[in-house]
UniProtKB/TrEMBL annotation:
Cited Gene3D superfamilies: 3.40.630.30
Listed InterPro entries: Acyl_CoA_acyltransferase, GNAT_dom, MshD_Acetyltransferase
Protein name (database record): GNAT superfamily N-acetyltransferase
Domain N-acetyltransferase: 5-170
SUPFAM superfamilies, A to Z: Acyl-CoA N-acyltransferases (Nat)
Organism: Moheibacter stercoris
PROSITE patterns: GNAT
Length: 170
């Protein structure tokens, strides 16, 4: 079933599905005891902005949106200051707001999405992916460890510190 996953840039028609998936992820973070995404961010305006900026990407299963993420090249001001050190100083892809629907959570969609992120970066001649997550987002921390991301230090966002990771692609 999960083999039929396809990836693409999101369209305005995907906005409601992306927002529904983000709401599910927000609820899961809360149920897991995480403080991440519990302050009104991300919200519907975030989804609309990501689509307008053409940084929203989705995973679909049989045409239905089942996961989303925002992919941004180089433009992440909060990464300019890190308590630690990035592995590289060149171009990079930032992955934000990864969310998987309840329908496919735990079925390998996130794994396939991370493969897509790497392929997308390489297609654009970028060989570094940077990502951050909350200290208590155990699901994402586990994924990052499994995918070979290196912990680089802490960055500061509006509601506090985040763990920052980087993976250098071959």
């Amino acid at each position: 079933m999960i083999e039929q996953i396809e990836f693409r840039q999101a369209t305005p028609e995907d906005a409601s599905a992306i927002w529904e998936i983000l709401q599910q992820a927000i609820r899961r973070r809360k149920e897991d005891g995480s403080t991440q995404w519990q302050n009104g961010y991300p919200n519907e305006q975030t989804v609309e902005s990501d689509i307008q900026r053409e940084i929203a990407h989705v995973a679909t299963l049989n045409g239905k949106v089942v996961a989303s993420a925002a992919l941004v090249f180089n433009d992440e001001p909060t990464y300019d200051v890190i308590d630690g050190a990035w592995l590289t100083q060149g171009d990079f892809l930032v992955v934000h707001r990864i969310a998987v629907s309840d329908e496919v959570a735990g079925k390998g969609v996130a794994k396939k999405f991370f493969t897509y992120f790497e392929e997308f970066a390489k297609e654009n001649q970028v060989f570094s992916i940077k990502i951050d997550t909350n200290f208590d987002n155990l699901a994402m921390l586990s994924i990052l460890e499994k995918w070979g991301y290196t912990y680089c230090g802490e960055i500061q966002v509006s509601d506090g510190a985040r763990k920052a990771f980087e993976k250098v692609l071959k």
